Amino acid sequence: MGRPKNFEPDVAVAQAMETFWTKGYAGTSPADLAEATGVGKGSLYHAFGSKRELFGKALDLYGQVGSEMTEAFLNEPGTAKERLRAYLALLVDIDLDGPVRRGCLAASTALELGGKDPEAIRAVQRMTDATIGLFADRIRKGQRDGDVAKEVDADAQAHFLMNTVVGLRVMAQTHDGPVLHRIIDTAVAGL
Amino acid sequence: MGRPKNFEPDVAVAQAMETFWTKGYAGTSPADLAEATGVGKGSLYHAFGSKRELFGKALDLYGQVGSEMTEAFLNEPGTAKERLRAYLALLVDIDLDGPVRRGCLAASTALELGGKDPEAIRAVQRMTDATIGLFADRIRKGQRDGDVAKEVDADAQAHFLMNTVVGLRVMAQTHDGPVLHRIIDTAVAGL
DNA sequence: TCTGTTCTTGAACTACAGGTCAAAAATTGG
DNA sequence: CCAATTTTTGACCTGTAGTTCAAGAACAGA
Predict the structure, then answer these.
(1) Is residue A111 part of a domain?
(2) In which domain, by residue range, is A98 found?
(3) Hey, what's the torsion of the CAs at A79, A82, A88, A90, to 10 degrees?
(4) Which of A100, A159, A170 sits opposite B166 (nearest CB)?
């Protein structure tokens, strides 16, 4: 009962995510969020409580979407090395393609809120670790398939690749495609 | 002639740098800067013109200090691999040691101001490229000294190591020492 | 159609960001 | 000591951040 919502909360969270992604947490105002979602400021506060809470939902969505995308992409046909290289290249290309460079929301959050918002940091950590897990799984699958040497430490490589991804998405703010693709080539050499 | 300055501009820039580093560009207010430097808001504006201009000086100082530190550290006795590994480990340890995690000012700037402040991005790019140059020089020295294989592409390795450094300094916000040191081990394996 | 409930709207409010300015203070040269 | 110059101080200003709230609108059930 009661008056029905005038908007889809999930959609609003997705739109808020885009805005936080582009402008950063501190750089996004309630007015920005109202404009991005098409929902009045008052309604947003009624529905989500505060800017910080809405950001939390946006972060979670970011992690979830990224995780699904990663898993699907890694498990398309190909060797582990091919798939991982293609994945890194995809991320870089997406970063470079957009009309505006905005990097990675998780990395921005880690740097912007590090040391002053432990809950946000934990959320970033969760999504990072999830990705590391997907990398490690794919490498182990490669070992079972015979396209990755048995001696490779899947877990170490997975952590290392995650680190490379983070680096790439920051460096995509300042450097261009050829440079980044050469970095990818060097990074996947260990597989 | 005229009334003498009550503060050392260079010192104030250094203090401003610390503040921007800890709180980010958007997160630092003129009041914060006045408190950090011990200089009145009015005087700061008189001396530096605007928050953005002071930030520019702070960024330049950050690059200069980092560059000098890097060059000195890389050229202490040891093989290229030893020195580069020690350098990455040093950065990580510094990041982890502080009372507050604050990552890398250059990376924060790239993410926060990317796509809306081309001049800041260029400054970050300059300091990144300077570091890449130092890495490449040190690797080539290693090749002359015989501790790095001739086949290694010094330039590609230098770019790759820069990328690794950036990744590490972001991941230092969310992960702990052992994890990061294992990433370093994996990264320097190609030398 | 009256009631209770949930949502929307727009105004309102406090605090602070970012910056400006006028007046006074501290210096040097004449 | 006076003039010119440069800095300091602190008040002041405009705009916006982040949030709250009162009033009304849209529903379901009795």
Answers:
(1) yes
(2) 59-190
(3) -110
(4) A170
**CA B102, CA A113: separation in Å to the nearest integer?**
9
Question: A45 CA, C10 C1': separation in Å?
Answer: 14
The C1' atom of D13 and the CA atom of A154 lie apart, in whole Å, by: 61
Per residue in A36-81, pLDDT (tens digit) is 999 999 999 999 999 999 999 999 999 999 999 999 999 999 999 9
Q: Report the alpha-carbon distance of residue B175 to residue B116 in Å, rounded.
A: 30
Say yes or no for a CB contact (<8 Å) between A186 and B159: yes
A chain contacts of residue B112, beta-carbon cutoff 8 Å: 24, 27, 108, 111-112
Query: How many folded domains does chain B comprise?
Result: 1
Q: How far is CA B53 from CA B23, B45, B59, in A?
A: 17, 10, 10
- End-to-end C-alpha distance for chain A, whole angstroms: 58
Q: Which of residues 151-190 of B touch A (CB under 8 A)?
A: 153, 156-157, 159-160, 162-168, 170-171, 173-175, 179, 182-183, 185-187, 189-190
Q: Quote the tokens at residue A95.
A: 């970063």
* Residue B100: CATH number of its domain: 1.10.357.10
Determine contact, residues A16/A53, Cβ cutoff 8 Å.
Answer: no
- Look at residue A138 and tell me if it is in a domain: yes
User: What letter represents residue B110's amino acid?
Assistant: A
- Kindly state whether A11 is in contact with chain B, defined as any CB-CB distance less than 8 angstroms: no
Q: Does B130 contact chain A (CB < 8 Å)?
A: no
- Tens digits of per-residue pLDDT, B83-104? 999 999 999 999 999 999 999 9
Interchain CB distance below 8 Å, A186 and B27: no
Q: Is residue B168 one of the residues assigned to a domain?
A: yes
The alpha carbon of A100 is separated from its chain's Cα centroid by a whole number of angstroms, namely: 16
pLDDT at residue B115 in the model: 85
Q: Is the CB of A2 under 7 A from strand D?
A: yes
Tell me if B101 is assigned to some domain.
Answer: yes
